[in-house]
Design a protein that fits this description.
By secondary structure, the chain is an all-beta fold. It contains one helix and 40 strands. The radius of gyration is 19 Å and the shape is globular.
Length: 410
Amino acid sequence: MGTFARYALNTGAAAALLAGCGALPLSSSKGQTAAQPPITASEYEVLHAFRDIKGGGVYPQARLVNVNGTLYGTTTSGGAYGHGTFYSITTTRTEQVLYSFGKRPDAADPSAGLINVNGRLYGTAAGGGRYRGGTVYSITTTGTEKVLYSFGGPGDGATPLAPLVNVKGTLYGTTYFGGSTGCGSRTCGTIFSVSTTGNERLLHRFAGGSDGAEPSAGLLDVNGTLYGTTTGVFGGMGTVFSVTAAGKERVLHRFGGGSDGLVPDAGLVDVDGTLYGTTANGGASNHGTVFSVTTSGRERVLYSFTGEPDGSGPEAKLIDANHTLYGTTTYGGTYSPRCDFGCGTIFSVTTTGAEEVVHTFAGAPADGSKPLADLIDVKGTLYGTTDYGGPRCNHRGGLSGCGTVFAFTP
């Protein structure tokens, strides 16, 4: 699934994709949980299945954030107003909805992970706000939320899908739409900065074509220069770019499709000065790639996914755990009748391209499916979310489950 399809899920188009049934006694959205032992070494476990019980959230697409041992995240839908929730979950499986998004002019449909800045969390939401173009918001760990900036004014960005990055107290991010025209009938996206009090500045408007367009991933700070990717869904095949804090942008690599890969949905990770990332499509079998690129723009494809029994369509950022990279694929893995095109995988890959599938998602009712969010590392255990999976839930079209939180210890 590409980025535009991911955004369509935020607006309710996911229901037509769901199939399957089942039930599993996992934790509820009110924090009730059966007594279970904590995660032990070398195992995978579903910590929570979203069920839309009494205003619970559904369809988590965002990366979790760890604050003093408790994990926090968002769901793109569900909640009191149907536009997503902010929740906490402990590593011992107790989940609690802390805030419901979507009562105008509030933020709505958050798909990006949160960042922690001095104990307060900051994020973006793809919808809502004064102009319905999305927002930057802050929220406390107890659920007190404030919209800091609303996108959608003339020439401004719109539809932020990516998390923010904090550089010396200023937050930087991207919007998928907005800015300049040049991508057919669509605008091409932007790079922006915003203060923690809500003062926003537009740094770059993507122009499409050779400049790239439609960034869906967060930015990476390397010694004060920001690096990112554009998907190019409506304006090319995608790029890797750099941008300074003053807004000077430079395209480092333009993906060419075929064996080179195309549509880099995910952000980049820095390992010893070399950047690593994934493309959702392209590669030798057209199931996506893992690539490396230097800060001067020299790119190399390290691995091409094969679909089955390997993964397909990686959309999440890689994570570096002791110089082994871990990530997820949205599709692929061992065939399952519970998921069209496969339920997805967790994989490891070395910086030289040796790849291994370490978990294959099975889908509803017992497991998650279609992971979109970046993994996080908490004391050697990796935590993540799946957009679907878990038992049949109460949300419309929830036959394939409404998503899970999982833990995996390599």
